[in-house]
Structure formats: C-alpha cells, structure tokens
Amino acid sequence: MANEKNHPVYFLKGKEAVLRNEALNSLIERFTDAAFRDFDLERIDGRDATAERVLSALGGVPFASEKRVVVVDDAQRMPTEEVEKIQKLLPKSIGAMSVVIFVAGETGEEKKGGDDNGGGKSAQKVAGIVRRLDSLCKSLGVVQKFDVLKPPEAARWLAAAVARTGKSMDTQARTELLARVGCDLGALAMELDKLAAFSGNRATITRDDVRTVVSESTEFSVFVMTDAICAGNAALALSTLHGLRANNEPALRILPMIAWQYRLVWQAKMMAEDRTAADRLPREKNLLKMGEWNREKAAKQARMVTWERLRRAFRLILDRDLALKGIEGPAADEDESLETLIVELCRKG
After folding, report:
1. How many CA atoms lie within 13 A of 183 on its CB side?
2. How many CA atoms lie within 13 A of 118 on its CB side?
3. H-state helical runs in 44-182
4. How many Å is the maximal CA-CA distance in the chain?
C-alpha cells in the first residue's frame, strides 16, 4: 500500500486478521510519526463509537504527523443509527489533515442469522452496517477485503514468513505445517515462532521439528483416520478417533469431516480414471483448488479403495448421520456409533 494514492477514508474488513492488521499498521505508519502517535492517533471501539465522537476526533489538528488518524475498531459493532449519521455528515466534515480507518473482522457473511453467542449483533445487522460502510468508504476512499487465504496463497505467505525468521524450511516441512495447522495465518505465525525457538541455532526447520512441536488439528487427525480406514487399519483409525473424542470433538463435527474427506477421495478417483473429470467437479470443496498435501493424500487414498467400497462408505455415513441426529432408527450412543462406523468402513470386502 506504500505506493498507493492517499485517501481520507479506509475500510479494512474480513476474517484474515493477520493481513488486515498488517494493512492497518502500514496505514498508521504512513500517516503518523512514531514519536507522536500518542497525540496523533486515536482508536475507538465500535461499540462505543458515536458520530459525534468520531467526527470530533477527526476535527483535531495533527501535532507533528502528516495526518491525524482515527481508527474505529470492530466497526461492524457500531449502532446502526450512528453509522447512518456518519454517512450523512462525514463527506462534509472530513478535512485534508485527517484520516479515518474503519476496521471490521466480521462482515455478516460468516453466520446465517441469529444473535451471536456473545450477545452481539445478528449477522443480518452486521451485514447491514458493513454495506453502509462499504458505500460510504467507496465514495470517499478505499475498501479492502481480507478473506482467509486459499492453500496456495497461504503457502506463499508461509514461505515469506519463514524467510523473515532468518531460517530455511524445505517444502516437506512447510507442507506438513500447513496440513497440521491449516490456512489460519495467526495460527501459522504462532507455530512458526515456536518452531524457530525449538530449532535453536540450527539454520533449518525440519519436518521432524514440525511433527514434534506442532499439535495435530482436528482436520489433520481426520486425514490420518481416513488414511487408516482406506488401508483397512482399524486399530490406527480407532485410536485416532479416540484421540479426537478425548479432546471433546463432537460426533456431529467428526462425521461430516469424514464425509468431506470421502468426497475428496471420490474426486481424486474420478480424475485418476477420466481426464475430463476435472470439468465435472463441484465448485465448492474442489480438490484442484486445495493444497498439494490434500491432493496427494486424496490420490493415495483413492488408489486404495474401489468404487463399490466408496458407494458403501457414503451409505454407511448417511445412515449413521441420520441415527445420530435422531431422524431414523433408535437413539444412538455417539462413541459406539462412531466406532462401529469406523470398523465397517475399514472392511475391504
């Protein structure tokens, strides 16, 4: 953003907090002198933000910086009536010496209706406020959205982050780290800090370091479990399941993840047997859009199962899902139901 034209209004929104915060810090550094930020930077929590307070803060003169900067954090939490006032008044009030930056970690797209568990605004209200801020900021300045990165993008970010530590990390180690953690850049940054400390004076972070230091995510454990299922290794599959349950993973979270992994195996098997299959893959959860580790794992699993075994697996998973939800059949004990499913899925015949 350093070479971009300066604007009086910015709206930084989206779930990827690391990139969003990097953009925010870049703007703060651009417009304010570090020695005078106590005077020239004001941050307001969205829940406490009123039109009067925001406009009053913008009316000040910078003490020794290029601009006076006002940041409204959690702008999606602002009262709707105050956002409406800002829409009307800000275009007439923003001066040449001030910059306002609205920041929103939620956009209302994340949840479908209902109040959040923290007693905050419903997704519908959040979406309405974000739309108003979008309209305002597009007319006066810049809107930037920071979505969670796709695996290839996260891999590039990780490679750059490793370089900044002054260490190296080969492709296998980076792939293992992404597989275990996923694409959450905050979690990746935290684990990378731990790995850099663990590796000490060594210049290279290895895959063994990753396996020693980084805990397995639920998603990674399900990959391991599905691997064992496809290989017919019931002991390993059940051991992995018991680990997930010991970590309080709900049965109704584990089961859809098993189903999701089987859908990836189905896609991999289609592509292995038909070169035109890529055109028929679903738009969402498309294996080709996932990371290399996911594609390789699904391809390996696809080679271990027959079409008949895949069809039987989908039927078993559906039956177990209906039973766990109490839709069909008697109420099922969750642990016993999942264990029975795993044993049945491991059966190759």
Report:
1. 17
2. 4
3. 51-58, 80-93, 123-140, 151-165, 171-181
4. 77
Find out whether 63 and 36 touch, Cβ atoms under 8 Å.
yes
Contact, 183 vs 161, CB < 8 A? no
Q: Which residue has the tokens 């519908």?
A: 124
Q: How many CA atoms lie within 13 A of 273 on its CB side?
A: 10
Distance CA 281, CA 29 (A): 45
Tell me the per-residue pLDDT of 8-44, one tens digit each, with 9 for 90 and over.
Answer: 999 999 999 999 999 999 999 999 999 999 999 999 9
Q: Contact, 137 vs 143, CB < 8 A? A: yes
Q: CA-based Rg of the chain, rounded to a whole angstrom? A: 25
| 3-state DSSP percent of the chain in helix, strand and coil, to 5 | 60, 10, 30
Backbone phi, psi, residue 102, to 5° = -90, 135
Give 191's Cβ-side CA count (13 Å radius): 26
Residue 139: how many other CB atoms lie within 10 Å: 11
Burial of 64 (0-12, 13-18, 19+ CB in 10 A): exposed
Q: Where are the beta strands (DSSP E) in 249-313?
A: none
Q: What is the DSSP letter of 104?
A: E
| pTM of the entire predicted model | 0.68
How many of the other CB atoms lie within 10 Å of CB of 329? 11
Predicted confidence (pLDDT) per residue in 281-296, tens digit: 887 778 887 777 778 8
Q: Across-strand partners of 205?
A: 169
